[in-house]
Amino acid sequence: MKRSSPAQILPDFRRTRVVDQTGIEERAARFTKRSIKQSSKRQALDQVLSMIDLTTLEGKDTDQKVRHLCYKARHLHDELCNIPTVAAVCVYPNFVRVAKKALEGSSVKVASVATAFPSGQSTRAIKLADTRFAVSEGADEVDMVISRGKFHAGEYNFVFDEIAAIKEACGKARLKVILETGELGSFDKVRRASEIAMYAGADFIKTSTGKIQPAATMPVTLVMLEAIRDFYYKTGKQVGMKPAGGISKSKLALHYLVMLRETLGQDWMSNEWFRFGASSLANDVLMQIRKERTGQYQSAAYFSVD
Amino acid sequence: MPTKNKSTRLSVLKTYKLYIGGQFPRTESGRYYVVNDASGNPLANACLSSRKDLRDAVSAARSAFGGWSGRAAYNRGQILYRMAEVLESRQTEMIRELQQRGASASQAKKEITACIETLIHYAGWCDKFQQLFSSVNPVASSHYNFSVPEPMGVVGIISSSENALLGLVQAMCGVIAGGNTCVIVANTDNPLAAIDFAEVLATSDLPGGVVNILTGNVSELLPWMASHMDINAVLYDPDVKLDREALAQTATGNLKRVIKFNKKDVLSPYRILDLQEIKTTWHPIENIAPSGAAY
To answer: For chain B, which residues lie within 8 Å of any Cβ of chain A, measuring from their own Cβ?
Structure first.
């Protein structure tokens, strides 16, 4: 079947679909009420683990801190057998080389933030250079931020062109576009920004940098999942989703999986199409997995320090 | 006979809930049981806590531990004193509560007074037991060698059902005075005073999560308490019927201390020491300045 390319059917972004806020919030709340049987829970916990992007994005990061994180990605909790590894390690561009070396020979990918993360306040040239540097250092994935200021000023073409330019600079690396929903203000704007990002070539759309509160919430993620679904129906192109920031408990992560399954279906249920941007979630999931296996409630004292 | 009032007022009965992390949630399980008064009439519904309530209470106690143990000991003493003040101002209510369950007026009065005095007593000990139990040890090298008590962490308390309130206060005081946080399981027979006491705690500057109170079945919760990796010690009242051997056996698996509460000597500072571990520090003796001053 011949599908029209995205460029040919570019919609008017001033007229994106209006989101029913109350409806979204109620529906998102309902996903938290599903009963999850023990066997499904075990499977889901493994899946959550495999979807985590272990992240360190601090001003105080050092090579050694990044190596620590990579070591953790390779040895989540050696005492537990048959657990998956995380999907990726997410760092600043200047640490990509270190991370890449530390993860050599493993299946864990290296993701790098770029484009003047987290504010995105810089020139296009610098953002492109930032991206090219990350990719040349070996990043498998690039997490960019959109220009929220331009977006609020209504310069949707600017935002679109910027994403498209970064996508081109990424080459083979997959591009995740961070909308920073905490700065967008309303679900309508989240929906609009999602569409701009997807039509401009995003492989993933991502809620937040983790530097702004609120970060990922279930309602805002649902808005983005629905945008992905509608985009898929229109263009046939599958786009991934990454909620980031504020998801630190397994229970909440399971609720997200329920929401993903019921909104986008089985095709999205892998780390190729869904990620959690988190640092402390991994330990909580490991504790829950060990609880499921031993029947004993666990203590953080027996798990690695984040 | 015509009654004077067409409508008689229905009394508004209190819902007895749990006390977890400074909040009063219902049990996650939705289970309740009826508590009767002395003459066998239903008095109230109380929550029959589940293992998940225990889990929530432990995580509340764990998150409160850093702040409580890190607080100045003097300030912990002030807070215990405040708890006594608040209990004093609510004693009429608490006495009435105990009477409903069959205590005589004088018994009830005596019990509440003893509770208040226990609190005041331990308020004083908060910043004094350390000196009593610390030591500077002689060693054969150029080191200072100190041993100091440190709180164990999260303590599970199985409180007595005889003299329910006093037993609970006595067991709790030594635990929190030393900087531990706790999860108290008040036995099914007599849980109301415990929850009333929680209202005193909630209004007395005590940070949420330092003391958590569950009402329910000890034999149901005990195995979960014993196997829980994040509870550092269990303090049980010798009057409570429980399978001590099973408790000790499970607790060995996670290095949990199982301590029988010494009711013979409840006001001793050794009740604080029961829930402390001793940390020994070696510190090199060295010159820190050209003047030759040492520390």
So the answer is: 55, 58, 62, 224, 227-230, 254
With respect to residue B228, please indicate whether it lies within any of the assigned structural domains.
Answer: yes
Determine, yes or no, domain membership for B173.
Answer: yes
Which residues in B lie closer than 8 A to residue A299 (C-beta atoms)? 62, 228-230, 254
- The reply to whether A80 touches chain B by the CB within 8 Å rule is no
Residue A275 near residue A242 (C-beta atoms within 8 A): yes
Domain presence at residue B214:
yes
Which residues span the domain enclosing B82? Answer: 32-284
Task: Note whether B146 and B100 are within 8 A (CB).
Answer: no
> Cβ separation of A296 and B229 shorter than 8 Å?
yes
Mean of the per-residue pLDDT values of chain A: 95
Domains and CATH numbers, chain A: 20-302 (3.20.20.70)
What does the pLDDT look like over B203-234, one tens digit per residue? Answer: 999 999 999 999 999 999 999 999 999 999 99
| Residue B228: closest C-alpha in chain A | A297
Mean pLDDT of chain B: 91
Residue B247: CATH number of its domain: 3.40.605.10
- Tally of domains in chain B: 1
Contact assessment for residue A68 and residue A99, using Cβ atoms and an 8 Å cutoff: no
Contact B190, B108 (CB under 8 A): no
pLDDT at A7 over 90: no
State the Cα–Cα distance between residues B52 and B28, nearest whole angstrom. 7
Catalytic residues of A: 143, 206, 242
Give CA–CA dist B295/A9, Å, rounded: 77
Residue A93 pLDDT > 70: yes
> Contact at 8 Å (CB) between A221 and A243?
yes
pTM: 0.90
Provide the pLDDT confidence category of residue B193 given band limits of 50, 70 and 90: confident
